[in-house]
Amino acid sequence: MNVLVVYAHPEPRSLNGSIKNFIVQRLEHAGHTVQVSDLYAMQWKSALDPQDNRSPTLGARFDPSLDSQQAFVNGTQSIDIEQEQNKLLWADTVILQFPLWWYSMPAILKGWVDRVYAYGFAYGVGEHSDTHWGDRFGEGLLAGKRAMLVVTAGGWSSHYEPRGINGPINDILFPIQHGILFYPGFDVLPPHVIYRTGKIDAAAFAKVCDELGQRLDTLWTTAPIAFRKQNAGDYCIPQLTLRPELAQGEAGFGIHVSHPDENKLSQHRVTVEQSDLMHAEQTR
Amino acid sequence: MNVLVVYAHPEPRSLNGSIKNFIVQRLEHAGHTVQVSDLYAMQWKSALDPQDNRSPTLGARFDPSLDSQQAFVNGTQSIDIEQEQNKLLWADTVILQFPLWWYSMPAILKGWVDRVYAYGFAYGVGEHSDTHWGDRFGEGLLAGKRAMLVVTAGGWSSHYEPRGINGPINDILFPIQHGILFYPGFDVLPPHVIYRTGKIDAAAFAKVCDELGQRLDTLWTTAPIAFRKQNAGDYCIPQLTLRPELAQGEAGFGIHVSHPDENKLSQHRVTVEQSDLMHAEQTR
């Protein structure tokens, strides 16, 4: 299998640098092919701007979306963007590895997303109609591939628990996992988060590797997060709100993950409705 | 009053550029003093790295936090970082204005946060003890100042409603409003979000200005979001989980905003407890 690791830390001798090396070794040792986009080493350009199109329309008002689309269609995207898109197309699995800075990814990684996720590549794909609102949230050019976050955090795990002051880690990561990875089609595996990184000595690092190693060994068998596909019937289109009969009375990020018993429930509901219908027809 | 607008859009002739100009004009016309950090125009450096310390320790392993602390304490921070910190100290109110790109801020603005929010300035402030876990989440160097987000989004407002596919806008913005603004002490006003920006013609822009103008006219009187202060008794320390008797049985970002009736409820609870105590004393 082909694995792309997109890695964002400024210091190779950091905990993150060691984790990145471990990931590469573990995967290569298991026979996989690994490419690393080491954004700091590559001096990745973070700011999306008109120079991302090698052939911009001179004097025109710069529109981030339309310019991105034009460059993508005309084959005039900046070379660094094209290279990263090709790595994404090559990969079977993509790992984004980063320290959590201010409850999100470092700027250099956000700039990778902003620039590589071109119109026509990661969004603006597919038709818009009354039943299909673009190939996104479960469909798209990256469908069939897997993705996983490997994240380090300085704080304690309790600070990221459901009632922790930072908010639940799954909610903090939702805009990335759902909005950046599931959006263009990735199956998103549960994240691997390493807490309290300031306290990791050699013994603790061995444990970090052991636990992360298990995740890497099961990359192809771990069940993805059950995010709901946009165009598979769960959402009203074009409002894109969850249908009222699903997760009734609930709101928030959590409702976009389907409940394991839901299929059974909705099959049951269909059966009841059919039975009601038959009853209605019989008594008509 | 002094207002700092931190603005992140690559095209001055964009909707965001027009909104930024409107904000400046409206505030100056009302007699306020405005500074704008136009990050694209400033060619703001996004990536936090060893060069952010003008006097780095040669050959040392770069630690983002400790290096930031050292540079802050020794007065050797990069000049661009110092300038932005001085603007923050000068401001009574800070507005972050940006287009929502991939459910977060553009990389260049995240890089402003990553670099300007130094250790000793925006975090790592205050003592840690059994009752006080640093001056943060409601305390800190920026306490007493106000902050507000002005955000544009291409999607429909229904996509950002409580049951919309993107997740509720308040949850998408929570890591910024709570994790970046409330953390170093800002009082955070409700965000001003402008949706479906691709469809804004001259008539719609007049309406945009009218609504935003009302928010700007009431910057100093609008009630902030009632985020709970970390060290005021609502959290168990050091776990930093919300005390079990508050928002009982609930979880997620929403529990970190106190309920308007809660003070009355807890006063009531105290009264009941006192009454129990008096009763216990009377019957002893």
**Named CATH architecture of the largest domain in chain A:** 3-Layer(aba) Sandwich
Class per helix and strand makeup of chain A = alpha/beta
Distance N terminus to C terminus of chain A?
A: 60 Å
Largest sheet of chain A: 6 strands, parallel
Q: Could you tell me the mean pLDDT of chain A? A: 92
Helix content estimate of chain A:
25-40%
- SS field, number of helical segments of chain A: 9
Strand content bin of chain A: 5-15%
Q: Write down the oligomeric state.
A: homodimer
The CATH topology of the largest domain in chain A is what? Rossmann fold
CATH superfamily of the largest domain in chain A: Flavodoxin domain
Total number of β-strand segments of chain A? 8
- Chain pair with largest interface: A-B, 66 and 66 residues
Number of domains of chain A: 2
CATH class of the largest domain in chain A: Alpha Beta
Order of helices and strands of chain A: EHEHHEHEHHEEHHEEH
The parts of chain A where pLDDT drops under 50 for at least 5 residues are 267-284
Gyration radius of chain A, in Å: 22 Å
Shape of chain A: globular
Show the helix and strand layout.
The structure is a homodimer of 284-residue chains.
Chain A: E1 2-7, H1 15-29, E2 33-38, H2 64-74, H3 79-90, E3 93-99, H4 107-116, E4 146-152, H5 169-172, H6 174-182, E5 187-188, E6 192-194, H7 202-217, H8 230-234, E7 235-236, E8 241-242, H9 262-283
Parallel strand pairs in A: 1-2, 1-3, 3-4, 4-5, 4-6
Antiparallel strand pairs in A: 7-8
Organism (chains A, B): Advenella kashmirensis (strain DSM 17095 / LMG 22695 / WT001)
InterPro entries (chains A, B): Flavodoxin_fold, Flavoprotein-like_sf, NAD(P)H_dehydrogenase_qn
Protein name (chains A, B): NAD(P)H quinone oxidoreductase
